[in-house]
């Protein structure tokens, strides 16, 4: 742990002590997340609050980093390539038992786009301590991190029971045209840093173009699981920047991939492409107006 002030609530991995609610003092967080947009949003929220953050792109890298360095808390995405968050947590708990038997287990917080109560039980079984559903809102994320870094009662298999948030953005009852992004909400989440928001959306545009090619090839080859995984990643990423219409289309494509019913997949992909174009044009116009 990197503690540069006396107020730091973090002492070392698994030995955190109660402290003041807002104290960060350079506490060291490992963020295990494979999607660039999600990485950027979480990293921005955490570093702006004073935490130091290292990013692992998949579960294998998360386990390797845990074995090489000392952290105060881990944020663990559940769906990652090569090794998912469940198996990574299991491996980390095994390392703790073998290498750090005298220390309390490090808090591991699950990150997922699935607001399903069954996920909580599975997280508990694999040794996680708590659960955050995407989109990652600044207040929600920082409150969760602060709770566990400031002395939340915990054990090797303890999880906080609470109602899972409903993703209201998945439903839209309005008959009026909906903008491609809730700009005011997104800007508020980015603390008014419009340049940073533009940078994150530019990165998403680059990534989603590659994902559209992957989904196109998967639809041609009848690869429903790849369609599901890519659509799931897009959904989580755009939810974090409040692009709700695109998130809903990605959800529809994801739901087609889950049971393997891809009959309407190409039509839905065209909807997604059109909505990506609408989002990009909207953001470019915002940028032009500012400049």
Q: Catalogue the unreliable spans.
A: 1-8, 11-22, 155-170
How many strands appear in the DSSP assignment? 5
The total of helices stands at 10
Oligomer: single chain
Shape: globular
Describe the protein in words.
The protein has 291 residues and is an alpha/beta fold. 52% of the residues lie in helices and 8% in strands. It is built from 10 helices and 5 strands, in the order βαβαβαβαβαααααα. Strands 2-1-3-4-5 form a 5-stranded parallel sheet, with helices on both faces. α8 runs antiparallel to α9 and α9 packs antiparallel against α10. The protein is globular and about 55 Å long. The N and C termini lie far apart (42 Å). The N terminus is likely disordered.
Outline the fold blueprint.
Blueprint lengths: L27 E5 L3 H13 L3 E5 L2 H10 L4 E5 L7 H15 L8 E5 L4 H9 L4 E4 L4 H12 L33 H7 L4 H28 L2 H16 L4 H14 L7 H26 L1
Parallel strand pairs: 1-2, 1-3, 3-4, 4-5
Which terms would index this structure?
291 residues; disordered N terminus
Quick overview of this protein structure:
Helices cover 52% and strands 8% of the residues. With 291 residues, it is an alpha/beta fold. The termini are far apart.
């Amino acid at each position: 742990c990197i503690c540069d002030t006396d107020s730091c609530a973090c002492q070392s991995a698994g030995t955190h002590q109660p402290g003041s609610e807002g104290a960060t003092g350079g506490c060291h967080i490992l963020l295990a997340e494979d999607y660039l947009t999600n990485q950027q949003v979480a990293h921005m929220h955490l570093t702006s609050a004073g935490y130091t953050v290292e990013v692992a792109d998949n579960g294998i890298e998360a386990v390797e980093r845990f074995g090489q360095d000392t952290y105060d808390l881990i944020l663990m995405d559940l769906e990652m390539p090569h090794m998912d968050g469940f198996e990574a947590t299991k491996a980390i708990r095994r390392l703790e038992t073998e290498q750090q038997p005298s220390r309390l287990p490090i808090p591991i917080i699950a990150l997922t786009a699935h607001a399903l109560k069954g996920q909580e039980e599975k997280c508990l079984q694999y040794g996680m301590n708590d659960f955050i559903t995407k989109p990652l809102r600044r207040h929600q994320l920082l409150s969760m991190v602060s709770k566990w870094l400031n002395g939340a009662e915990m054990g090797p298999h303890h999880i906080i029971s609470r109602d899972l948030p409903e993703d209201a953005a998945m439903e839209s009852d309005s008959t009026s045209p909906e903008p491609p992004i809730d700009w005011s909400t997104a800007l508020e989440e980015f603390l008014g840093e419009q340049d940073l928001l533009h940078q994150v959306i530019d990165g998403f545009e680059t990534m989603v173009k590659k994902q559209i090619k992957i989904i196109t090839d998967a639809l041609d080859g009848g690869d429903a699981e790849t369609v599901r995984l890519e659509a799931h990643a897009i959904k989580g990423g755009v939810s974090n920047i409040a692009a709700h219409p695109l998130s809903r289309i990605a959800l529809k494509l994801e739901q087609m991939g889950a049971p393997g019913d891809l009959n309407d997949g190409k039509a839905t992909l065209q909807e997604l492409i059109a909505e990506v174009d609408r989002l990009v044009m909207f953001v470019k116009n915002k940028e032009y107006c500012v400049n």
